[in-house]
Amino acid sequence: MSKCIAIDGPAASGKSSIARRIAGKLNIAYVNTGSLYRAVALAAIRAGRDLAALDRGFLDSLKLEYTQDDSGAWDLKLNGEFPGAALRTPDVAAGSSLVARQSEVRDYLLDVQRSFAGERWIVMEGRDIGTVIFPDAEFKFFITATPEERARRRLAQEGETPDGATLAEVAREIAARDKQDSERKVAPLKPADDAVVLDTTGFTLDQAVETVYGQVAGVLKKGER
Ligand code: CDP
Ligand code: CDP
Questions:
Q1: CB 142 within 8 A of CB 9
Q2: Average model confidence (pLDDT) for the chain?
Q3: Is the CB of 116 inside a 6 Å radius of any atom of ligand 1?
Q4: Which of 154, 210, 215, 219 is deepest in the core (most CB within 10 A)?
Q5: Could you give the CA distance from residue 38 to residue 64 in angstroms, rounded to a whole number?
Q6: Could you tell me the distance, in angstroms and rounded to a whole number, from the CA of residue 49 to the centre of ligand 1?
Q7: 223 pLDDT more than 60
């Protein structure tokens, strides 16, 4: 079994917030795998590449590291720098889903993601962690909420949507990305057979965190971190 708490689910369901908080409470590492796909999209846009046809040579030229920033928060470095807000633009969000359909990109990031695992526990969050990256993860959660609720959550997040965006526009963007993520041939978005599915519609973030924490804390406290 991998010492991994896998948290999957659709856009704006609360995966990153839950994963970050669980990692903080347990003092273990946190990896947001969506930021890897976003970083590939950002690098491809910056290099003027066709996002729908990336080759392994380009991917191997990227340097992706997951590390703690000055404040101790876990974050992604692309080619030696924290890209920060550049990863959260609408172009990069749409581009991430496009690059994520390609098996070249998924194969490349599979190795990157597995290299994060080891002796110590990690929380890893994305779309296919419990199904493909760590099918033997000790804990698997699939976090969801209604599309309307997820659109409301995303619109309320500062810097995540263009100024003046409407709820309907945000809902459309999320629906298009979820459709693309669920219908792709390689590693589609879906709950693992043995995942705990948690519908957080009507939950506060604290309630969602406590639900997940309640299932993992006992086991992790008993065992070695
Ligand atoms: O990572 P993912 O796209 O799944 O979602 P997120 O960026 O972690 O969360 C989207 C927003 O929903 C954040 O502002 C959370 O604080 C908020 N939220 C939540 O995650 N869970 C709830 N039960 C309620 C609100
Ligand atoms: O924050 P949000 O949930 O909106 O998206 P994200 O987690 O940052 O992921 C961005 C995109 O990367 C997704 O729409 C997927 O297309 C892709 N992705 C993936 O295919 N597999 C993962 N494990 C994580 C992300």
A1: yes
A2: 93
A3: no
A4: 154
A5: 11
A6: 31
A7: no
Mean pLDDT of all residues in 31-38: 96
Beta bridge partners of 5: 123, 139
Q: How far apart are CA 4 and CA 210, in angstroms?
A: 18
Least confident of 28-32, 46-50, 125-129, 141-145: 28-32
Residue 129 gets which letter from DSSP?
I
Q: Cα(133)–Cα(118) distance, rounded to whole angstroms? A: 13
Average pLDDT, stretch 9-38? 95
Instruction: Please state, as a whole number, how many other Cβ atoms lie within 10 Å of the Cβ of residue 14.
Output: 24
Rg (CA), the chain: 17
Residues 140 and 195 sit within 8 Å (Cβ to Cβ): yes
Q: Residue 176 — φ and ψ, nearest 5°? A: -65, -40
Establish how many alpha carbons lie within 13 A of residue 149's alpha carbon, considering only the half-sphere containing its beta carbon.
14
| Complete DSSP assignment for 36-64 | HHHHHHHHHHHTT--TTS--HHHHHT--E
pLDDT of residue 218: 81
Which residues approach ligand 2 with their CB closer than 6 A?
Answer: 11-12, 16, 33-34, 37-38, 96-97, 100, 126-129, 177, 181
SS3 state at 123: strand
